[in-house]
Amino acid sequence: MARRHHYKRRTKQPAYEIDVTTFLNLMVVLVPFLLITAVFSRLTIVELNLPSSAGGPPSDTEGFTPEVIVREELIEITNGKQVIATIPNTEDHFDLQTLSDYMVELKNTYPAQESASVLMEAQIPYDYLIQVMDIVKAVRVPLETADGVAQADGEEQFEMVALFSDISVGDAP
Predict the structure, then answer these.
(1) How many CB atoms within 10 Å of residue 114?
(2) pLDDT reported for residue 95
(3) Which of 58, 67, 62 is nearest to 164 (CA)?
(4) What are the φ/ψ torsions at residue 156 (nearest 5 degrees)?
(5) Burial class (CB in 10 A: 0-12, 13-18, 19+), 125
(6) What pairing do the DSSP bridges indicate for beta strands 158-162 and 144-145?
(7) Which of 15-24, 29-38, 97-106, 145-154 shows the lowest mean pLDDT across its residues?
């Protein structure tokens, strides 16, 4: 008797089959992890005017422009030609509250003026530059109601009032 060979019929399968199960498992774990640990930060951009090397002749039509010069031992407020006020340091710190009061007084005197300059000595920390710029740009004023100062949950409420919004930054002379 002759033997017959019985072969299984094979169905055609693709030559390369990619198994994406492990990749999908990785994505299921990785995407929520990245979303949870992502840092969502708000970026704030402050436009500054930097001094140019080609300074033109001074114009008589320009009005009063306050300059805040931060030195190691004190803060000077000038009009570009003469010193208006000096604010000495208090216990190795700059007296920023007095600076704020002077800036409010200058804004009340010159309400149309929008520009100011902040000039710093080289050894002053960068944090003080930011603090002084914030004070020159705007001030926190308590909200007032008919009964007096508005309070919510025992705390005073404040609003920001713009002072000099166009700030130039440079090195102190």
Answers:
(1) 14
(2) 87
(3) 67
(4) -70, 145
(5) exposed
(6) unpaired
(7) 145-154
Closest CA to 113 of 171, 45, 46, 168: 168
What residue spans define the domains of the chain? 67-167
Q: Residue 16: what pLDDT?
A: 74
What percent of the chain lies above the pLDDT cut of 70? Answer: 70
Kindly state the helix (H) or strand (E) to which residue 168 belongs, with its residue range: strand 166-171
Residue closest to 70 by CA, chosen among 126, 108, 114: 126
d(CA 149, CA 169): 35
d(CA 37, CA 39): 6
Q: By C-alpha distance, which of 157, 139, 140 is closest to 148?
A: 157
CA angle 64, 161, 79 (to 5 degrees): 15
Element (DSSP H or E) covering residue 170: strand 166-171
Report d(CA 89, CA 102) in Å as an integer: 15
Position 61 scores a pLDDT of 42
Q: What is the DSSP string of 38-95?
A: -----------BPPPSS--PPPTT-----EEEE-SSEEEEE-SSSEEEEEE-BTTB--
